[in-house]
Amino acid sequence: MDIINQSLVFVKSHRYEDFTLRQLALFGLLCDTDGPHKVAALAKELGVQKPIITRAADRLIKEGYIKRHPDPNDGRGCILVTTTIGRMFREAVRHLHS
Known about the structure:
Structural class: alpha+beta
Oligomer: single chain
Strand content: 15-25%
Shape: globular
Radius of gyration: 14 Å
Number of strands: 3
């Protein structure tokens, strides 16, 4: 089964409904805006505290849609990036709604 069909199956499954609005908002922001995406900047953009972004990111990382990397300019910070699977999933969802 290719990634698009896997994405369509996922969208129709109960697991898709488990995503919170914050997780979906974070995922959309990561996919639809230019990076790099620092956690602090994402928190500011979404009007939440950094730990909320971290928790939302943890779920997206678990599903394989994003990755967390150390921020090379800030030893305590990190950068979130979408994965190939995450970008493909975003495109599949976008096509469902067009």
